[in-house]
Amino acid sequence: MKAARGEMRIVLVGPPGAGKGTQARMLQQTFTIPQISTGDLLREAVREGTRLGQQARIYMDAGELVPDQLVTAMVAERLRRPDCAKGFLLDGFPRTIAQADALAAELAAHQERLDGVVSIVVPRADLVERLSGRWVCKACGAMYHERFDPPQRVGVCNRCQGALYQRNDDNVATVNARLEVYERATAPLLDYYRRHGVLHEINGSGKPEEVFQRIATVLRSLPPPAQP
Ligand code: ADP
Ligand code: ADP
Ligand code: ZN
To answer: Does the active-site annotation cover 134?
Structure first.
């Protein structure tokens, strides 16, 4: 079975709030491949005050995309680490055609390619509601929602007791900017991956566990990777 072999190179795509992070965290356990979230990596760089973080921050606060060259260099470096040798789950990357081309080139250089792209589809009104109630654990990154998935104790992570916070780009004005950026820059990727025959669109409504089962079914039915 696929889960046992763990050889999968997967991209999760979807608008802000679609549940990419929530699903990626569940999938990485079941399929034992690392989750690579560019949003998390960039926020870490901002927190640490690295050069990349200083450059990225202004875009992130405005709800704009960080320039392609910065993000693709960061991802290429991450994919070269040994834990990605047998596969990975990209969450929030690529977000532009240029990023998708850069990823394809990076994989091709190692005789690799993507096995599947999962697009999580959620109505726009639900996205705004999900983002405005999102709380994230500072320590372990777990996601909660004040109405749909509240923590047992207000402001405290169930898993690690870490403090929960609201991202400063989850305010209404920035959320709207991010949704527009998604439509303009990222939605064209769906056609791109459809043409490449790797796109799987899944319904992102319903409980996280239900969405997870839909995605897991898709991943288990992927054709085995071609032998190089
Ligand atoms: P969400 O979970 O709401 O989809 P992310 O955490 O993935 O948001 O991303 C937060 C911000 O980080 C984005 O608004 C953007 O500024 C930046 N970012 C993340 N991934 C990318 C990427 N692949 N390309 C450019 N910018 C990115
Ligand atoms: P993304 O990474 O795509 O921006 P998240 O996984 O962070 O999305 O989810 C956004 C918010 O919606 C979080 O507060 C999360 O708890 C909540 N959420 C995730 N999946 C669902 C779901 N299936 N139904 C309702 N709320 C959800
Ligand atoms: Zn936690």
So the answer is: yes
